[in-house]
UniProtKB/TrEMBL annotation:
InterPro entries linked: AGP_Transferase, Aminoglycoside_PTrfase, Kinase-like_dom_sf
Domain Aminoglycoside phosphotransferase as annotated: residue spans: 31-214
Originating species: Motilibacter peucedani
Claim: Hydrolase is one of the keywords in the record: no
Gene3D superfamilies cross-referenced by the UniProt entry: 3.90.1200.10
Tree of life domain: Bacteria
Protein's UniProt name: Phosphotransferase family enzyme
C-alpha cells in the first residue's frame, strides 16, 4: 500500500492515502510515513510510551507534535485480517506467539488497564444495544454473553498490547517485523491479547500457542472471542465499517 513514484516532471511523487477515519483519530500515509492525528493527546502520549517500553519490534517514531504522531512504515505484511483467511505460514504464527510472550513477560507498564467491573458494565451495555439494534437472534446473543462472562474473573496483569488484531502484527516469512497501534497498551489479561490476535483464525491457534510457549485456558480464549465480538459491533457500525449484521464479528457470532 502506498509508496513513491515518478510524476510527469520526473520528480518523486508521494500519494496521500487515507488509512483509517473515525471519531477517535485519523491515519494517513504519505510514502513510507504514517501520520496519526489524534484528538486525545494523552492517548498518543501513551502510544509513544508503550512503544518505547515494549521489547518487540515497533514502528520508529519520526516525530510527535500533538495532535500529530509521525511513524515510519514497518516492513512485511499483516499476519491476517478479521474475517479473512490468513495466508501467513505456520512459522509466522509461531513467531507472533513468541513475540507476544516476550511482551507479556516484560515489566509492567505504568498505565492501568480496564478492570473487571468496567468490562462487565461494557458487556451489559453492548448486549443491550445488540438486542435492540443489531438484528442478531436473541438466543445467539445469550449464548455468547454467557461465554463472554467467563473472562470476568481475577487474572495476573501483564504488559498487553490491548488492540492486538492480526492486522496489527506484520511478518516477513517466519519472523515478526513490527507490531503497530499501541494506543491501548496497558496492564491487562494476557488471554485477551491472544484471543484478539486469533479472532476468526481458529485454525492457527495451535501454532500461535506453540510459539507462545505456555499453557493457557483455551475456553477462556473462546470467551474472549465472544467478548470482543459482542463489544465491537456497535463501534464498528457507528464508525462506517458496515451494517451490524454484515460485520465479520457478527458472522462469527452466528457460526460459533
Amino acid at each position: 500500500m502506498g509508496g513513491a513514484d515518478e510524476g510527469p516532471s520526473g520528480r518523486v511523487r508521494h500519494d496521500v492515502q487515507v488509512v483509517t477515519v473515525h471519531g477517535d483519530r485519523t491515519t494517513v500515509r504519505v510514502g513510507d510515513v504514517f501520520l496519526k492525528i489524534d484528538a486525545v493527546q494523552a492517548r498518543a502520549d501513551a502510544e509513544v510510551e508503550a512503544m518505547a517500553l515494549a521489547p518487540v519490534p515497533t514502528p520508529e517514531v519520526l516525530w510527535h507534535r500533538p495532535p500529530v504522531l509521525a511513524l515510519a512504515a514497518v516492513p512485511g505484511a499483516p499476519l491476517g485480517r478479521v474475517g479473512e483467511p490468513s495466508t501467513a505460514p505456520a512459522s509466522a504464527w509461531r513467531a507472533a506467539g513468541a513475540a507476544i510472550r516476550t511482551l507479556h513477560d516484560a515489566p509492567l507498564p505504568p498505565r492501568l488497564g480496564v478492570g473487571r467491573d468496567e468490562l462487565a458494565a461494557r458487556l451489559a451495555a453492548e448486549c443491550e444495544w445488540l438486542t435492540a439494534s443489531s438484528g442478531l437472534p436473541s438466543d445467539v446473543l445469550a449464548h455468547h454473553r454467557r461465554r463472554a462472562e467467563s473472562v470476568l474473573r481475577p487474572w495476573t496483569p501483564v504488559f498487553v498490547h490491548g488492540d492486538l488484531h492480526a492486522s496489527h502484527v506484520f511478518v516477513d516469512g517466519g519472523r515478526v517485523t513490527g507490531i503497530i497501534d499501541w494506543s491501548e497498551a496497558a496492564q491487562g489479561d494476557a488471554l485477551a491479547d491472544l484471543a484478539s490476535l486469533s479472532l476468526t483464525h481458529e485454525r492457527h491457534v495451535d501454532d500461535l500457542l506453540a510459539g507462545y510457549g505456555a499453557e493457557v485456558d483455551r475456553d477462556l480464549i473462546s470467551g474472549w472471542w465472544s467478548y470482543r465480538c459482542l463489544t465491537a459491533i456497535r463501534w464498528l457500525a457507528e464508525n462506517g465499517y458496515g451494517a451490524p449484521e454484515e460485520l465479520p464479528e457478527a458472522t462469527w457470532l452466528l457460526s460459533s
